[in-house]
């Protein structure tokens, strides 16, 4: 492998040089020309091992953003879909996998080949006006998202008998400590660990033992004529493709300093994450559909507690509370991390202040300040508002409507 020489033209020149070297190494790997320790070309077995190790090193941005994608609002939307319409919305979950991958893969590619975040690229190519339009839409989406996540934290606390103010305060303290006292690598590892809690939903779905014949009916019976069904279709689309995901993954790729040589691994990172996040959505939908009757007179789950109650036929009341609580709490915390960092990165890219997790809080006070305000401010709002399940559905529909707004840069005339 080539060792990148040092440049005397500053950090930007060094970055470009490292990128060129990484790309050259990737070409060598493709041709099997990288030499092993004995000076001979590397074998295909060695090449596959090297690719796997590269994937493990690159793994992170795609997985984290997809785990955050299956947030509290998404879980509630999937649960409502299963409770109200049974398996009728199941095909949509699979159809959204390639759509989700295409959007986020393009985002990762932009970050890898430009070394710039989404907001910075919009500002440079289309001007500050279009940039602030995108940031405005991002801010609305992020406020709604973080409120949804904290509503999940509060609901989990209430499930286990913890007062809302205490559960919110503990969550805020934990999230501030993770970012203020960490680096990108450390934040990434903690986010991956939190997101792993969502795998609890897969276990619950397996325990529900859904009937294959009922699953097949979901692919055949699609009640497009019903307005409530169409509303949940929009909510599910908004629950899968969220505006802040674009800003987060591109900025995370840049902060992790990935280059063109890492593109293959970054694409796999995104692809695996796209499948996993939709499997979690499917698991929640299947569980609630298998638990409750469905059809036009189907039920609606009005609180997070009712969603947890839907799991009790298979797990028992106490286990259901613990399993559902762990899944919701992990989903909520990783989503708050992602959305708040997306806000801090986005504003930093537009204003030009330092915006990296590698900077100490004293070096980037605005970056860490925006993050802290997003976290603490949203928690205060949730502490003063009652149950937000209905609002969660509305937020997912809003996300679907905001996506074209945030993608307007593709159509706007460049300066």
General description of the model:
The structure is a single chain. This protein has 415 residues and is mainly α. The chain has two domains: 42 residues, no CATH class; 352 residues, Amino acid/polyamine transporter I, CATH 1.20.1740.10. The protein contains 19 helices and no strands. Helix 2 packs across helix 14, helix 3 packs across helix 9 and helix 7 packs across helix 18. The longest helix is centred in the C-terminal third of the chain and has 35 residues. It is globular and about 50 Å long. The two termini are 41 Å apart. 47% of the residues are buried. The N terminus and C terminus are likely disordered.
Detail the topology: elements first, then pairings.
Layout: H1 11-30, H2 44-58, H3 61-69, H4 72-85, H5 90-114, H6 118-126, H7 128-159, H8 164-180, H9 184-196, H10 200-208, H11 212-220, H12 227-240, H13 243-255, H14 263-291, H15 304-309, H16 312-315, H17 317-351, H18 365-383, H19 389-406
What does this entry show, briefly?
This protein has helices at residues 11-30, 44-58, 61-69, 72-85, 90-114, 118-126, 128-159, 164-180, 184-196, 200-208, 212-220, 227-240, 243-255, 263-291, 304-309, 312-315, 317-351, 365-383, 389-406. With 415 residues, the protein is an all-alpha fold. The longest helix is centred in the C-terminal third of the chain and has 35 residues, at 317-351.
